[in-house]
Amino acid sequence: MKILSLKLRDFRGIKAMEIPFNSKDTDIFGANGTGKTTVANAICWLLLDRPATEEVDFDPKTIGAHGVRHAAAIDLELDDGQELLLAKEFYEKWTRKRGATEAEFTGNVTDYYVDGVSVKKKEYIATVERACGVDIEKLKMLLVLGYFADTMKTEDKRKILFELAGEFTDEDVFEKAPELKDLASYLAMPGNTSKTYTIEQWRKIAAEQRSSLNKKLELLPTRIDEAQKLIPEDTADEEALVNSLQALDEERTKIEEERASLNTEDGQKEALRAAIAGLDVDLATKRAEHIKKGAEANREINEAIDALNTERRNVAENLDDLKRQQRESETRCEQMKAERERLVNEYAAIQAKQWDHGQETCPSCGQTLPADRIEELRAAFNEEKSKQKALINKRGQACSSDKIAAEEARIEDAKAKIPAMEQKLKECQQRIENLRESLTEAPAFETTEAYLELTNRINDLKAKLQAGSSAPDETAKVYEEKLQAVKKEIQSVTLRIAQTRAAKDSQKRVAELEQELRDTSAALENIERGIHLCEEFTRTKAAMITDSVNEHFRFVRFILFRDQINGGLKEICEPTVENSNGEWVEYRSVNYAAQVNAKLDIVDTLNRHYKTNLPIIMDQGESVTNPLPVSEQLIRLIVSAPDTKALRVKVKE
Fold this sequence. Notes:
This protein is an alpha+beta fold. It folds into two domains: 2-167 and 566-651, Rossmann fold (3-Layer(aba) Sandwich), CATH 3.40.50; 264-470. 58% of the residues lie in helices and 14% in strands. The strands form three sheets. The chain has a six-stranded antiparallel β-sheet, covered by helices on one side. The chain has a four-stranded mixed β-sheet with strand order 11-12-3-13, with helices on both faces. Strands 8-9-10 form a three-stranded antiparallel β-sheet. The longest helix has 87 residues, at 265-351. The two termini are 17 Å apart.
């Protein structure tokens, strides 16, 4: 479909205008404010029922005009050679109520015409859609250059591009990446050999299972630790403890029998000698305990001193590291500031460069170069200037204000921490000195009450034995002490046997929990592998879709997926353009001409996809000297300063 002509009457300040497009590519020249955008809005208003500028509550009224019919008509040549005339009129409706002397404004009215015949809006839109070959919602992205790339929602653009790509089945992906075939076993529904989950269904199930397994893995170490705490560090041999218990029972019986022998004279003397021997053993035991106790007191202090010495060394090392980091940060900060100042000055010098108008003159003949050549030279000058500034900006990233601020923050952080660490170092030294002063020397055992009490009892018993007398009360006391000591030991061994048996139960429970931990870890690893396969499947399918989409375009390549930090894929729709270095960059970062050619490629491709041939409206056409060739009728709106009074139309052959 092509435009033969456009007629406007009282349309947004245009009293009357007719533009003969003659089904050809057409350039419309005019200074700012002469009506170029109005022409674009009129075409879109006639075909889309809304303006090209997306103006809210658009109407074709001329400001201040009342009682006027604002009209626009477009004559179209359809693909089958027939002509179609579409027209619309917009006017105010004034109504005089009964009994009133003056009419009141009651709203605006739009009339629709097809081939000169008045029709309803619904029929008008249906006629437009039949003529264009697509529904009214798709018309704007095919008519207005840049609407697809800059205005449409990402999900709407992706939907259209996926139509271009076609359908890809799971088998297509497995054929492309055979290493992903193991994913099929994950997708199989349990207990059903004929049904499988979709990728998204299984990922949801896997995410829930992974969450559950992770929670279980978080709890199991705590449960294992709790069970391990019930196991004594020194687990005794149960059989040895039972044997020891039997020996203690025999010893208890023996003591009880010896105590019973105190009723005879010989037995009393023998008991007296046994009591002396027992007290000698007690005396030796008390001596050993006294020596050990004195050593233990100093051992704890010495261990505390050793721990403080270790802490002091660590603090001193950290303090030295912090001071070194501060010095290094100060050096880097000064270097970055100097480099930043140098780059700022270099950037300012490049920014100050101006176009040399002398280059607009041919050095050979002295004549002014053609306008298109001057435009090329200017564009090359501006591009080179932009490249130099971009290079400076790139180099400036290493000494950006954020990085300088980060170094300064590290310096201030170090300055804030150093005094506290120095104070901590002093405190460690003071505590060490205090502990050293608290070291004690244990008194001699012979000066203790235990020594005096035991030696007195031994000497008393020895005197009685030498005199041939007995000491039934004393010997009975000794036997009673022995008996109580044996009973106490029996209780201790009995308790240790119970603890050993409990430890065995705890060890068994720890083993069960550790096996559960291994099984859970294996299950999680299997789930993680399935999720990884899903992600790789999605990436492979995304690459296949992207490649299939990009096969349809000449000038642009679309990025439809972007890797996320967490390993997933974000759905996007970013067109890219190849720069002079052969790199594909976002089209918004290239010059305006390249952006326009990208948009032309998109619209031309979409027209081929929908089997349409709709006119394309290009605004700011003066900025593009070599637009990408397209098969559709191209209408360029070009700013031209000399054309101040009226639009100038140039129909191309």
